């Protein structure tokens, strides 16, 4: 079950691996030709005490003999810690899978983050870095807005991805109307369930979410078979949202407790203000960043130090 906007944006590639061909085309990369796509284990932990996972990892076996490992990362804000992780992902996969070319694709829903995400991110000596990481980036600037029903019906996975990418854009209403019209014509209820799940969660928290609910009701309920999966989804939506909020609260509390335990174990004494900052933080990624720093930090100041691109403690997703 997709449970967040962040998840929906990269999960689309897991549900519809054929999207990689559209991504290559949009990025003007060489056509890999016919290929089979397999979702791989996202774990890229090496012999270290830290667990590392990419958002989505696809293995592309091409008939031409060129094989790829496509790393798909969803990003909604600047985060230098994440940029460093990308270098790790690429280098580990390049060494672990010698017959595959690792390719990093970052997907964004806002242009500002996308402009940052293209890098390059230097690693090494200032002014003379050994390594530059330059992700390929998809964003509202290069993902087409599909506002025509016929075009959406001809390529529903891309129409869904268009809606996810332009979820906060000025023409999202047109995109959703075209998508709903195309879904009404479709016959594969299993695929439609996935489309509906991705869109509902991908629009969560945006003004377009209510419009999508209305379109689901007026265009998809009014069918001969009543689209039972839509009806069931509406009945369960409130309960599922409540469960999701509960899971998020549990994750936040657990990560905060883990961070405090690491600080205590390492003898890093924090002030009451810093303790409150940890327990009141509503950003799971920020808590995780502090947690990773606490493992090796020389002092408390290093754990909570802000870097260029760091966000506030308020939740914004990744």
- Quick one: biggest sheet? 5 strands, mixed
The number of distinct β-strands equals: 7
* Shape summary: globular
Query: What is the helix tally?
Result: 13
Strand coverage percent:
5-15%
- Strand order within the widest sheet? 1-2-3-4-7
Characterization of this structure:
With 318 residues, the protein is α/β, with parallel strands linked by helices. Among the domains are: 5-138, no CATH class; 149-223, no CATH class. The protein contains 13 helices and seven strands. It has helices spanning 5-15, 19-26, 80-96, 111-117, 149-154, 156-165, 172-185, 189-202, 208-220, 228-265, 272-280, 284-296, 300-304, and strands at 35-39, 56-62, 67-74, 101-107, 121-125, 128-133, 136-138. The strands form two sheets. Strands 1-2-3-4-7 form a five-stranded mixed beta sheet, with helices on both faces. Helix 6 (156-165) runs antiparallel to helix 7 (172-185), helix 6 packs parallel to helix 8 (189-202) and helix 7 runs parallel beside helix 9 (208-220). Mean pLDDT is 79; it is low at 44-51, 221-235 and 308-318.
